[in-house]
Specification:
Helix content is about 35%, strand content about 25%. The protein has about 220 residues and is of the alpha+beta class. The chain has two domains: about 1-100, no CATH class; about 105-215, no CATH class. The strands form three sheets. The protein has a four-stranded mixed beta sheet with strand order 1-9-10-8, with helices on one face. A hairpin with a 5-residue loop joins β9 and β10. The radius of gyration is 23 Å and the shape is elongated. The two termini are about 30 Å apart.
Length: about 220
């Protein structure tokens, strides 16, 4: 998986398309590639902005002031207008972007507790059964991030002190299912062969069910 670290990334979008979206008064988003997209969003869409502009009411006594793009997107965005382009840094709006993107994320690694479930039901079955053999969600996420296609939307910095928070978006759930199943199957077979506590005749009912799930019996 590729990291999209909001601390480092500058998102570039078309000023014309952005203004058209603003003036449409429809809900729209800006994705990590700088494309303007409209609701309903694709199930794998990763947004650095989501909103809907409502023009300020005006009157003869108080004409409406034309808002800037900074006014429209919000003060947590750093914006530079460069001819026909708009350059955006979005890291200061991270907490809001968690809310915006979590419904479409494959897993959530933004809390102190770490990952505790997968959005895809088949991946969740794999994760749940793997815990019977002390294979943690953290371990499985490390495998996904190393071996699968996708994007890790994150805030990561090393100085002054290391921080990490991220949402994982798998490009291909079937690929991820196959990778994790094979990983768990191989590891559980090894555990059952080498650890007396996990010998076939010592398995608990839950462990036996998990071993059968991974076709290790």
């Amino acid at each position: 998986m590729k990291k999209f670290n909001l601390f480092n990334e500058i998102i570039i979008t078309s000023k014309k398309e952005l203004l058209n979206a603003v003036n449409s008064q429809k809900e729209f988003g800006i994705n990590t590639k700088g494309a303007i997209v409209f609701a309903p969003f694709d199930e794998k869409e990763i947004l650095i902005y989501q909103g809907k502009h409502k023009p300020q009411a005006s009157s003869a006594l108080m004409p409406a002031k034309t808002p800037t793009l900074s006014d429209i997107l919000g003060d947590k965005y750093q914006i530079v207008e460069d001819d026909d382009r708009v350059l955006i840094k979005a890291f200061s709006n991270w907490q809001e972007l968690i809310k915006v993107n979590t419904p479409r994320a494959s897993y959530d690694d933004t809390t102190g507790d770490g990952v505790d479930k997968f959005a895809d039901s088949t991946l969740e079955d794999i994760g749940w059964n793997a815990t019977e053999f002390d294979i943690s969600y953290r371990e499985l996420v490390d495998v996904l991030e190393e071996k699968c296609d996708g994007t890790l939307l994150c805030i990561e910095q090393e100085e002054p002190s290391y921080q990490f928070s991220g949402l994982g978006f798998l490009a291909d759930d079937k690929q991820a299912q196959d990778v994790l199943f094979s990983y768990c199957q191989e590891k559980i077979q090894k555990i059952m062969q080498e650890d007396p506590l996990y010998a076939k005749d010592k398995l608990s009912d839950d462990e036996e069910e998990a071993a059968e799930f991974f076709k290790c019996l």
